[in-house]
Amino acid sequence: MITDPIADLLVRLGNAARRRQDVVKVPVSKVKRQILNILGKEGFILGYGEMQEGGHPYFSVQLRYVEEARPMITGMRRISKPGRRVYVGRDDVPKVRNGIGLAVISTSKGLMTDSDSRRSGLGGEVLCSVW
């Protein structure tokens, strides 16, 4: 049983990128699907697909590399954790690495990036940052 599925997703992606793997398997959840959609839209991963093995569904995430050697995802950090939630108002939405990275924020309109949150004028829970 996984107590923090978002942290599990980030750790799996980071470990696979460090090992230069092309594809990584991640157990399915709605939040992970939304985060993977954001990462794909922003160009951090090539894409993902939902598959099933032994009756258990999982995402097959295809990682993106620059110049065949460097992973596109160079760092990730879980901000809001189950033991300590971090909320920000619309004026306090963080910028990650001066706009090079992105923060995933859970708002009343769903999950979105920090730039989309600022544009919409919404605050919320800062789930993680990726750069």
Mind explaining what this structure looks like?
The chain has 131 residues and is α+β, with helices and mostly antiparallel strands. The chain has 2 domains: 5-68, Ribosomal Protein S8, Chain: A, domain 1 (2-Layer Sandwich), CATH 3.30.1370; 76-130, Dna Ligase, domain 1, CATH 3.30.1490.10. The chain is 25% helix and 37% strand. It is built from 3 helices and 10 strands, in the order H-E-H-E-E-E-E-E-E-E-E-H-E. It has helices at residues 5-18, 30-41, 114-120; strands spanning 23-27, 45-53, 56-63, 65-66, 70-71, 76-78, 87-88, 102-107, 110-113, 124-130. The strands form 3 sheets. Strands 6, 7, 8, 9 and 10 form a 5-stranded antiparallel beta sheet that branches. Strands 1-3-2 form a 3-stranded antiparallel beta sheet, covered by helices on one side. A two-stranded antiparallel sheet has the order 4-5. The longest helix is centred in the N-terminal third of the chain and has 14 residues, at 5-18. It is globular. The model has no long low-confidence stretch (mean pLDDT 95).
